[in-house]
Amino acid sequence: MKILKISMLALTLGLMSFTVISKEETPTVKTTEAGSIAWKSETIDVGQIPQGTPKLIEFQFKNTSNKAVIITNVKPACGCTAADYTKESIAPGKSGYVKATYNAAAAGSFTKTVTVTTSADVNPKVLTFKGTVVAKS
């Protein structure tokens, strides 16, 4: 009986040694080309604008990568802002734009954003403009 217990213990310990071996994983590093678009300004203060007069805000950028860049999506944060942008491919070293037109319907201070997605960056860029709408007298 004692020999059977020792044999079972040896067998159990032998099998357990196989389960302890762990596979060492090599971490994968995801690289992206940083800074492939250089924005002239990511935040624009438009100052005071009269109520009811739409205001055009233009964000300019330059393609600093070695590949052509395409703007794939431009999304204003609210319905009070319309957006336009360079539709064609922007070659390396060339410039493009994202335009936002704010309707200035409500008086008071405002801060609005436009989210821009490009083929160059994994994360979208959030552009901001702010100012004050002055009520008509």
Short characterization:
The protein is mainly beta and 137 residues long. It contains one helix and eight strands; from the N terminus they run H-E-E-E-E-E-E-E-E. About 7% of the residues have low confidence.
Describe this structure in words.
Pfam families: DUF1573 (PF07610). It is built from one helix and eight strands; from the N terminus they run H-E-E-E-E-E-E-E-E. The strands form two sheets. The chain has a four-stranded antiparallel sheet with strand order 1-3-6-5, with no helix packed on it. The chain has a four-stranded mixed sheet with strand order 2-8-7-4, with no helix packed on it. It is elongated, with a radius of gyration of 29 Å. The longest helix is centred in the first third of the chain and has 19 residues, at 2-20. It is mainly β and 137 residues long. It has one helix at residues 2-20, and strands at 37-39, 43-50, 55-63, 71-76, 81-85, 95-102, 108-118, 125-134.
